[in-house]
Protein 1
Amino acid sequence: MGESLITDQMRAAIGKPLGGTYVAGAVDRSALQKFATAVSDTNPLWVDDEYGKGTRWGSSIAPPTFMISITPQSTMTDGHSPTLEEASLPFERPFKLGFAAGDEWESFKPVRPGDVLTVTTILGDIWEKQGRPGIGRMLFVRVDNTIRNQRNEVVSIHRYTQVNYEGPTE
């Protein structure tokens, strides 16, 4: 495969913050209802306050998938939060071609209307692989977002992986 794509500078950045803490703000009840409707998941726990009061949660809560709408990589147009391409990576990636390779989520605490969420982002990992012909060498970059509520409790962890690849060499 030749010389490694991963430099000492890249290795040193693993586990380090990418930018500061992003304040997503207070969770709005109407945003939860719009999100649930948009993804066709109108579970009454997400959209009906009276129903939520009668559950073990004591109120309506956010669908676990709602967190995707507040991570810095998904809020590209708010003017304040970085996309992965702008997330203060302290190195240049060797290839311009790329694609999203997946998301992984862990949920720990329910999110309720009114909760104030913050997101911290670190460079989670970097690895390389050899792709099939036409793809060439591939660099995988994983960014980890930790989402906390106003009590500093971790409510969710989001791991986002992007692949940059060499492309045709002919």
Protein 2
Amino acid sequence: MPPHLMTLADLSANQINRVLHHSYHLKLISQPWLAPQFANKPTQLRMPSQSLFNKSIALLFSKRSTRTRLAAETAATLLGGRALFLGKEDIQLGVNESVRDSARVIGGMCQGIFARVGDHSEIEELAEHSPVPVLNALSSLWHPTQILADLLTLHEHAHLFDKSLEPTKPSQKLLPHLQTLHPLPPLTIAYVGDSANVLHDMLVTYPRLGHSLRVASPDKPMYRAPTAVWDRVKELKCDEKIWWGTDPREAVKGADVVVTDTWISMGQEAEYAQRVADFAGYQVTEEMCREGGANPDWKFMHCLPRKPHEVDDEVFYGPRSLVFPEADNRKWTIMALFDLLFGKWNVFEHGGAHRYFVSQKNDDKPRPPTKSGKTAPPNKSTPTKSS
């Protein structure tokens, strides 16, 4: 059975950190001109892992995409592979052909599947029958690659939250976020808006990494996280670090980071008027965060695309915004997952791994005797160093 990744709940905290460090490593070696130590030596370019050489990755997108598609196609190319884009006009899972049959056919011709689907059950069924690894690019329940990009962005800007990490040398001040991937201090992260896939992966991830999560959404069932999400939250003991209410000003109290998302997702256009009315007062502004008591140096994040009613221009384009570095990091975190999941299959530590990420490729069969005549220990995968 190949390894699949549906949500960050399927990874341990150590595995998540491993992906982040590998993402950062790939970012630096892929564009060394950004790093001060390589500023005058562009010939020192080190090619990233070519783990996808002669491999094809199927991009199954039943929804429109800008950042995810660009990130996936460029990431596959840098790893020596080829991304084959199949949009909803090319393939409709479960419409002209069953998901089970599609999984077998695509998996027989490609070495990995990166799927952006509608209902989460589609990607679950795809993974169940696929002979190759399946990575969730987005589903109705989860959006793991977005939260990895958010985390990488926060780590790169750790000096904004911990003044002891402030760069001192001139070269460090030039590009402070490209020195080293510092650990994050415990943060208070506020989410103001709809309870959708981005928030769901935040709920099962941030508390395990030591951060507190404060959420505000309208008091209606349609804006609450579904039972399937809360089951994972409780299973991972994340609920102790989560506060949930309906007042956005109360949610941003003490916040180091304020996050929002679209109020009207694809397929919800008919609900536009109702949703805009329900989210009245939820627009992220300087005034709202000041009145709510956010940290004076709070930063802002949004997964994009953004509409002005979600966050005003002053915040979105201002010095608090980490939105565009966040978007750029979609490429490097997706590239790391492609390398580790599609290229190498089983390089993650198994400690704390959840149901999907443990490959059965490595078994416990004893190895041949060593020269000393002793039987070697069972075959255990050893994580490779990413940097």
Protein 3
Amino acid sequence: MTTAPSALPEDTGRKTRVLVSTNGSAGSGKTTFASAVGYAAAARGKKVCFLPMDKQRDLSRLCGYDDPDSDEDLPTLYDVLDGICSLSEAVVPALNSKTKEVIPNLHLVLESRKLEHLEYKLAGETARELWLFRLLPELRGRFDIVIVDCPGDVKLATIGALIAGDEIIGCTKSQEKEARGLTELEDKITEIHRSYGHTGMRDSLDWVVIGEGVSNASQGKVYLDIEGQLREAYGSIVAKETVSDDVKVPEAYTAAQPVTLYSPKARAAVAYTKIGRQMKLYR
């Protein structure tokens, strides 16, 4: 198994921020947020690494790797868990899916459909919830930002990320299902923190990002009401920008590119870029 030459940035001892993009519900905009903000940061000179953990492999696809499992020479996160390679050895450069050129400053660890077996794979591990906590030091000091993109549940992959991350970003939409997913996520954070708070784990959400929002009641009063409820409930941790429902987001997905790469002037791309700036990921 090989990786691209010079795929891994040198460990300079830089401060690394590990962001966890998550929700207790699927389809909440986690991958869209991660890819959009991560690309925006890389385009502004920050060293960024994606660590996606979904068997659907959507973030890998947005970074130029349509089916990592089809190429046995490509390392994946599951290979790391299998002991075939280390986490640092699994880092590959992100590619522009249209031109196949390397995207400067942007890297990732590829997903695998085998990640659906993660809980079984780690069943015999002592304190298996700490699996990612043990691995992440290999990336710290090499990147400015590591973004962990969680699957749409709060099982072992997400639990490991919540323990290991520096900041927890709850991604949601102005819809009941995704808003309820945030509540489930909060309950899980509280539960896990009781056992693993000694690791430095965060005890609450750091940010809430609202996607697919509307600007007025004529576009759907229920959506506007739910956004209002979210902003009232979470207060200052809600990102100022609501990412509006924008056709460029599904277009970018079809083109297999982050929306901030596909159409940087689109409403959604501009909003995500502003959110990354509010989070002080870049200027």
